[in-house]
Design a protein that fits this description.
It is a single chain. This protein has 314 residues and is α+β, with helices and mostly antiparallel strands. It has two domains: 163 residues, Ribosomal Protein S5, domain 2 (2-Layer Sandwich), CATH 3.30.230; 129 residues, GHMP kinase, C-terminal domain (Alpha-Beta Plaits). The chain has ten helices and twelve strands. The strands form two sheets. Strands 1, 2, 3, 4, 5, 6, 8 and 12 form an eight-stranded mixed β-sheet that branches. A four-stranded antiparallel β-sheet has the order 9-10-7-11, with helices on both faces. It starts with 8 loop residues before the first strand and ends with a strand. Bound molecules: adenosine-5'-triphosphate. Adenosine-5'-triphosphate binds next to helix 1 and helix 2.
Length: 314
């Protein structure tokens, strides 16, 4: 492929996610846990702007009050967006580079897949910038090589993830769900939370293959999504990582209780945390929950889902 770029700037937006259900099974020999999860993409976005360049570089800017620390995001080959761009270049035999600008709104190390959204956005942006023309299936395959949550950030909407979370099947979801996200100034490391889960299970005497290596998403979760019923969904919200996240951050439980007292139907830790996702019955009650938490000094954002995956902005 030639290194002549077909356009010189592409802007892509990709969403953060909430796991409305997260079942964690046993640990495979490669260190990964078996998962059965339901992702929902929500209206909190990462913007990635790709500009034609001879070399590879990345800059990161955080929106105010997003929680986490945008300054802590690596700017070298550890950056997931940079890795995505280089993986695509290698797969397409493209010999130029790209200057990536990341504008973060998803909390860093917040359990909402912000880095995965950046990687998905970088794949789509570089594909367009370089005129690579890869099919969605090919981009999905590259995404899965970058991380378990990256294919979902490409895809968006609501989807069931199995395997490591990367084997996706769209889930029918009607209507809109209103969430209030409570962010934290300090992130939680995903591997540390999984290690904590293993420790807690060991203490409980769980064997290596118990919990099992394959899992299912409970039917009531899928029914609630299909009928667009927030009350039913609230009753089936579940996260196996929550106990481990709360072990590290006991205050998260109080945040959930406070959200419920303020009118949320229910709440969970999002993914590996520490972001708490509070499900509300409608936009008005979400507004009230957000205001109440903000008055208590918390950083709270009202978002909705499902929303589409990584998209080029025109
Ligand atoms: P996960 O997708 O594992 O649930 P998370 O949503 O909790 O992760 P992220 O914000 O995606 O957290 O980032 C986790 C870590 O990955 C960060 O602490 C950072 O060191 C590293 N990282 C690499 N690339 C990026 C990126 N583009 N944005 C944010 N973090 C990145």
């Amino acid at each position: 492929m030639s290194s002549a770029a077909s356009v010189d700037r592409v802007h892509v937006r990709a969403p953060g996610k909430i796991n409305v259900f997260l079942g964690v099974g046993g640990r495979h020999d490669d260190g990964y846990h078996a998962l059965a999860t339901v992702f929902q993409a929500v209206s909190l976005y990462e913007d990635v702007i790709a500009r034609a360049a001879g070399d590879f570089s990345v800059t990161v800017r955080g929106a105010d009050g997003i929680g986490g620390d945008a300054d802590a995001v690596p700017l070298d080959d550890r950056n997931l967006a940079m890795r995505a761009a280089k993986l695509l270049a290698a797969a397409a035999d493209y010999h130029g580079g790209v200057a990536l600008e990341i504008r973060k709104s998803v909390p860093v190390a917040g359990g909402m897949g912000g880095g995965s959204a950046d990687a998905a956005a970088a794949l789509v942006a570089c594909d367009a910038l370089w005129g690579t023309g890869f099919s969605p299936a090919r981009l999905h395959e590259l995404a899965a090589r970058l991380g378990a949550d990256v294919p979902f950030a490409l895809h968006g909407g609501t989807a069931v993830g199995t395997g490591r979370g990367d084997q996706l099947n769209p889930a029918l979801a009607r209507g809109r769900f209103d969430w209030v996200l409570v962010t934290s100034d300090e992130g939680l490391s995903t591997p540390v939370v999984y290690e904590q889960l293993d420790l807690l299970r060991e203490e409980e005497g769980a064997l290596a293959d118990d919990p099992p290596l394959s899992l299912d998403v409970p039917i009531p979760v899928l029914q609630a999504l299909r009928s667009g019923d927030a009350v039913q969904l609230a009753a089936s919200l579940h996260n196996d990582l929550q106990a481990a996240a709360v072990h590290r951050r006991p205050d998260l439980e109080e945040t959930i209780r406070r959200g419920i007292r303020a009118g949320a139907l229910h709440g969970i830790v999002s993914g590996s945390g520490p972001t708490v996702a509070l499900l509300c019955g409608d936009p008005e009650s979400a507004q009230a929950v957000q205001t109440s938490l903000q008055q208590a000094g918390r950083e709270a954002l009202h978002v909705h889902g499902p929303v589409p995956g990584a998209r080029i902005l025109v």
